[in-house]
Specification:
Number of domains: 1
Radius of gyration: 21 Å
Shape: globular
CATH topology: Growth Hormone, Chain: A
Strand content: under 5%
Number of strands: 0
CATH class: Mainly Alpha
Largest sheet: none
Order of helices and strands: HHHHHHHHHHHHH
Number of helices: 13
Helix content: over 70%
CATH architecture: Up-down Bundle
CATH superfamily: MFS general substrate transporter like domains
Length: 319
């Protein structure tokens, strides 16, 4: 087991620094989503291949979750976080300088891989928090993460509209360098006890999934919710540009509506502290499903096509 860090170190300032850091880091994964059109046009990618711009970043992030985040139980956490942020900064700089599709796509993969630093910071913050308010602390840190996700798209669109998509990645690279230096100076160290080796640790994750039903349930639920989230935001910028003829500024304003989702994270943290996690999970599932149902008639009204769900007779708008 890791050495416990005294709860006193979790000051309000450190809590908000962790929340801000999570937001800035996770934003790296989402900057490219509203810029898929301009980037693909600049790099010579077809509209069908434009999805790789977003997909490779997510693949890098997924592999980082599987292969890099477990190092948090082996490597001193501050050093691991700073190293990951530094690698993300290098990848962002490479994306900013890319003039060909292959170079950019490789950089996109590495941006996702380095951005898993955020998934080291969240459990790091949970370890620092006393048990009775851990849900609230994690909720506050997750608010920063969600704000980073939601603000990344409008920020990227505004910067690209004023300068170019290259400037988006160059600015983020500079921010990551500054953040790495700040965290290196401020974060209390957390040194895990010597225990399982890296290979044994990876194998133990399989046993953990097999023997922990609640983990399987939560992982499946969150995978579905995150899949729905990614499906919507990876495609809606292209839809807004092609079907609704919005500019990058218009897409940015649309994306700002999603910032309201950050309000839910501290509320969910407090609900978890009160034992309401099951009810909160079902409420989230119903909200996401309802949002997709609302989207279909809105698009049909704009395009004049029928919005039919199963069964086919239940059409809200006839084309």
């Amino acid at each position: 087991m890791p050495h416990p860090v005294p709860a006193a170190v979790m000051s309000a300032g450190l809590r908000w620094l962790l929340a801000t850091s999570c937001g800035l880091i996770v934003a790296n994964i989402y900057y490219a989503q509203p810029l898929a059109g301009p980037i693909s046009a600049s790099l010579g990618l077809s509209r069908h291949a434009a999805g790789l711009i977003v997909t490779l970043t997510q693949i890098g992030y997924g592999l980082g979750l599987l292969l890099v985040v477990p190092l948090g139980d082996i490597v001193e956490n501050r050093r691991l976080v700073v190293g990951l942020i530094g690698s993300a900064a290098l990848a962002l700089a490479a994306a900013a300088a890319a003039t060909g599709a292959a170079a950019f796509l490789a950089a996109a993969f590495l941006i996702g891989l380095g951005s898993v630093a955020v998934q080291v910071l969240v459990p790091y913050g949970a370890h620092l928090a006393p048990g009775e308010v851990r849900g609230r602390v994690v909720g506050n840190i997750m608010s920063g993460l969600i704000l980073g996700i939601m603000l990344a798209r409008p920020t990227a669109s505004f910067i690209a509209d004023a300068f170019s998509w290259h400037a988006v990645f160059a600015c983020s690279a500079a921010v990551m360098i500054g953040l790495a230096l700040l965290l290196r100076a401020v974060m209390p160290p957390r040194r895990p006890d010597p225990g399982l080796g890296y290979g044994t640790l990876l194998v133990s994750m399989v046993a953990l999934v097999r023997t922990t039903p609640v983990l399987r349930q939560r992982a499946f639920t969150q995978a579905c919710l995150f899949g729905a989230f990614s499906l919507f935001w990876a495609t809606v910028p292209l839809l807004l540009a092609d079907t609704f003829h919005l500019s990058q500024r218009g897409i940015a304003l649309f994306a700002l509506d999603g910032v309201s989702g950050a309000i839910a994270a501290p509320i969910a943290g407090r609900a978890a502290d009160r034992g309401w996690s099951r009810a909160g999970t079902w409420l989230a599932i119903l909200a996401v499903g309802g949002a997709f149902l609302l989207h279909a008639p809105a698009r049909a009204a704009r395009t004049g096509h029928s919005a039919c769900w199963w069964p086919r007779r239940s059409c809200l708008i006839s084309g």
